[in-house]
Amino acid sequence: MPQIQLTPAERREHRANAHHLDPVVLVGGDGLTPAVQKEIDAALNAHGLIKVRVFGDDRAARELMYQQLTADLNAAPIQHIGKLLVLWRPQPVKERVLDEDRMPGPRDVKVLKFSKRGGQRPEIKQLRVLGNQRLTPGGQIKRAKKPKQKSVKKRQAD
Questions:
Q1: pLDDT tens digits for 59-85?
Q2: Rg of the chain over CA atoms, in angstroms?
Q3: What does pTM read for this prediction?
Q4: Last residue of some domain: 23, 56, 88?
Q5: Which residue segment(s) compose the domain that 128 sits in?
Q6: Do residues 12 and 82 share a domain?
Q7: Model confidence pLDDT, tens digit, residues 97-129
């Protein structure tokens, strides 16, 4: 597969984003094994922009490894500085599976609490309401009530 070609401005932007990253994959004395390549591929799918640390002293071998990774994994070479290699590949779009049984998650609600005195501004509170909670008219958060259980005799009468 051909490697991705980036403009110098794009490469500079990715280099700046990678500055604070820690190495995700460490390449040991065995070099670039298929297992290491698979791990780098998985990291690129998960993160997009990664750092790889190579524990080898041979600069030519590291440069060859860098070129091989970019060619085999269809990644863009961002930076090779010392024993660190920075690679980038666009992340694949993840499919979302909709589950009908799933309840809504937490939601943020603004609550206005008006003063009893007339000329003052209302107090604005930002509250997070979870799935098993409800908001009362007074601005309080309460747990949602379960439906009241009927006795066996009353259920049979219905």
A1: 999 999 999 999 999 999 999 999 999
A2: 28
A3: 0.60
A4: 88
A5: 107-145
A6: yes
A7: 777 776 677 888 888 888 888 788 888 888 888
User: 134 - beta bridge partners?
Assistant: 142
Q: Tell whether 81 and 15 lie within a shared domain.
A: yes
For 96-129, give the secondary structure using H, E and C: CCCCCCCCCCCEEEEEEECCCCCCCCCEEEEEEE
Same domain, 83 and 127: no
Same domain as 111, residue 84: no
Would you give the distance in Å from CA 53 to the centre of its chain?
A: 23
Number of domains in the chain: 2
